[in-house]
Each structure stands twice: as structure tokens, then as C-alpha cells.
């Protein structure tokens, strides 16, 4: 299949391509479904966004690709648009100083923008959420501090912060010049205060930090913008999606009410809350985000996924357990290894990996319950491996290891392979086993299929062509230079990378030697050396060695002249 280029799938991609951020990369360099991240500009606000190529565009009703807008523009609609809900904002908007036009923002945005006071026209820099207030189902623009004090000189003072909110000391920061019993609750003074939810330090006006509960009349400290948005999102999600308990009653048996900080009735299907859960089967505790713990099954039911410890799933019912549907499972179940779990705890589709023992051959299996069970054409449940033991099939096969190569018994490491015998495998088995050479006693651990692959030159299995016995590799204590010619190994120089016990005497490598006569160091090929030969160039007087064969050493009188 030919690769579809991004430029072919999205004709207007170059219009929104951020060439500066993408450096030397061009739209024509990518496929339409590429996973590589690139920078493109939002078609609405022009903001540069980094995302995967395949998530950068989508097709319209005519099949033509177009660049997708950014997340901010995607969240904005007529129900929260600043311009739709408060059109007069355009009169007071300072376009030359703000990064975006008012159409870009929602009315609850915490972004600070430049606007003019509706009374005096003075410029101010304030968050949109603090700029717009709702009175009598109408949105209004707040006045600046000076106008508010001038036009309302005798506004009601409802008391100091400390009097109306006695727990203020828990959240009051030392950066404040004044104390909470010196500032009015509805004061315009800026204060430093910690968010009661996340403890983040927030700087805002006193009057924007508290809210009076209409039912109790008690003042509450408001959260920071982030926490407030998260709580509002949870309430909105609960109203739109409904409680998870209503759609998935089975979640209640997994819910650890003692360790969770949120009530189950306040959790939605897509919640990212890290919930504390407890398996109703094995009672193991674990944490998981709710949205990843429940899934929709093929029949449309919303159910919890399987327990990560025991594999118990709420998809089955007690009367559907495998012991009832397949009584012979009791003969296969390894109660000691699987303790404390029992077969009646699980259904046939359980992902739990359990220990089994074949009652026919005694072979141990460790597999998922779902992979061990199979239903016949009548719907009756059977054990998949019954009568099909791999061990017996291997023993009866013409490719049996011992039948093909009886000498394998001499190479089999019975000590390390434990109960496993060579008669139980074929030459094509992927099982890794331990082998030991009967001649040099070299040990190896490899797949049986790899060990018995036929070597092209000899026509024999690779295992039997031991490289140490054939002197293709050096083995310390067996065929190395140190073992076969220890006297020559004494002349081995310490400056060599390898040791005399790591090379063969037939090697063609050139190494350093130390002459036992003159103590001079020279190089020579290993296989060309013998004890007592004339390989030393200093003893042959082919090279000069100061202190041994120089003119000064051999004829000092002549050297004086």
C-alpha cells in the first residue's frame, strides 16, 4: 500500500504549519498517519500546538482533511463564551495589549487580561473570572478599586476575617503584612492565603477569598482556580454521565470504603480518581484509576476488570465456577502451590495463572485458567491438555532427542536440569536446557532447537562440535597456551590485553614476549614460538637494547673514542 502524504490528505496544511518551531521539517516529509510530533497553528486562535501528525487533522463530510483546532477553542461554546454571554466586553477590551481577542476566552477563564474600567476608563490587568460578575441573571463588568471606593464610600463592612472564619490561621501566610483580625472580609486588600485543598499559595483580594453558605450562613474559604475547576468538572461530569454505581453495581464489592476519601456515589465512569480497591475473592488490596478499572463488555455491560493478583472477575457468577462446570479440574489443581486459591473461586474465562499437575504424566503446568479450558460442540467444558501431554507426544515422536542422538545422554546435565530428561523432548523443542561436554566439561545453556541445528561444514549438530575440543576456542585449564606449554607461557608479557590462559598455542595473533635472557620485550606470533628459539631480536643482535648489546655495553673502550 502506498504511503499517503500529509500534504495530500490535508490540502491547507502549509497554511497552518509552524515552520519556525518545526525547524527544517516540512509537511511533505510526513505521512498522514505518522506518530511523530509536529507543531501546527490552531485555525481559530493561531496558537501553535504540538501533537502527533495523525491527531493534527480530520476529514470533513466530503472526505477532505482539515487542521483541527486547539483544546482551548474546542472547549469553548455558546454556553461559556465570554463574548456570547457578555457582548459589551468588546467596548472595554484593550486589543493592542492582549494576546487574543475576547472571542478566544470563556467567561470563567482565570487568564489575566487588559481592560478599561467602565466608570473611569482606567486600564487594569485582572483575571476574567474576577472581572465579570453575575447579578440578577445578568453579567456585569466590575469597577476598578478607586471607583468602587468613590461610588460606594459607605458600603457595608461585614466584619474581620478572623471573626467570620475562625480557622483562618491554618491557611494564613507569613507574607501578609496585616493580621486576619485587622482586615475586613469584604476588603479589596490583596492577601496571601493557602488553598484549603492543595495548600498552594494564592494571592487575591480578601473579598474574592470567601463565600457565604446560603443555608448555614457560615463563610467558607474558596479553593484556588485549579482545584475549583477540578471540583466543578467532577460535579458537571456526575450530572452529565451519572454515578458509576448506577451503571456498574458490581463495583461496590471491590470498593474499599475505609481507605477511599471520596464516596462511591460521587464517582463517574471516566473518573481519574486513584481508588483503593479490594478483591472480593483473594482480598488483596491495590489502587487503580477508575476509568481504567471498568470496561464495557461485548454484551454492553459495564463491569470491573480482573483482579491483578488472582484473576477473579465480576463477569461470572458463583454457580458458573470451573469446579462445577468441569469437575475433573480438581485432579489437575495444585492446591499446595495455588494456596489460598481454589478452583471454585474462578470462572472459565479467568485470566488468573494457576499451577496444575497432569494426573497422567505428572508434568507441572503454569498457565492461565482461560487457556487450559475448552468447550466442545455441545458446550461442555473440558481440559484442553487432557490426553495431549506434550511429554508423551515428544517421547513417541520420530524426532525424539534420544532416538535421533543417543549420545545426548552423555551431554545432558542431569544435575542442573533436575527432573527433566532428554527422552521428554524433541530436537525442535524451544525449551532452554543445560548441557555439559563429556570431554572438556564445558557447560552451556541454550535452546534445544539451537543446540541441534545442523552445522554446514560437519553435518553434525552444533552441540556436538565443541569449539574447545576442536581447539577453535581457548579454555583455561584445558587447551590454552598456559596449559599446553607452561614454560613458554612464562615469557608472556603483562602488557598483553589477554592472558596466556585465554589464547590457543596455535593462534596467529602477534603478542608481546619477554626474553628470559636479556629481559627485553618484543613481539612475535604465538604459533611461531617455541621454548629456547631465537625469536628475540636483541639476542640475535638485530635490534639495539641499551644495557645489553649496545657498543657501550659490548666494547666500552672503543666507545670512549
Question: Which stretches of 5+ consecutive residues score pLDDT under 50?
Answer: 153-157
- Rg, rounded, reads 41 Å
β-strand number: 24
Strand order of the largest sheet: 1-2
**Average pLDDT value?**
83
Distance between the termini: 90 Å
How would you classify the helix and strand content by structural class? alpha+beta
Please report the number of helical segments: 24
Q: Shape from CA axes?
A: extended
Instruction: Please bin the fraction of helical residues.
Output: 10-25%
Largest sheet: 2 strands, antiparallel
Beta fraction: 15-25%
Q: Layout of helices and strands, plus pairs?
A:
Elements: H1 6-9, H2 13-16, E1 37-41, E2 48-52, E3 57-59, E4 65-67, H3 71-75, H4 82-85, H5 89-92, E5 112-116, E6 123-127, H6 128-131, E7 132-135, E8 138-141, H7 145-151, H8 161-164, E9 190-194, E10 201-205, E11 210-212, E12 219-221, H9 225-241, H10 244-247, E13 274-278, E14 285-289, H11 290-293, E15 294-296, E16 302-304, H12 322-325, H13 329-332, H14 335-338, E17 353-357, E18 364-368, H15 369-372, E19 373-375, E20 381-383, H16 390-396, H17 401-404, H18 408-411, H19 414-417, E21 432-436, E22 443-447, H20 448-451, H21 481-484, H22 486-489, E23 510-514, E24 521-525, H23 551-554, H24 556-560
Antiparallel strand pairs: 1-2, 3-4, 5-6, 7-8, 9-10, 11-12, 13-14, 15-16, 17-18, 19-20, 21-22, 23-24
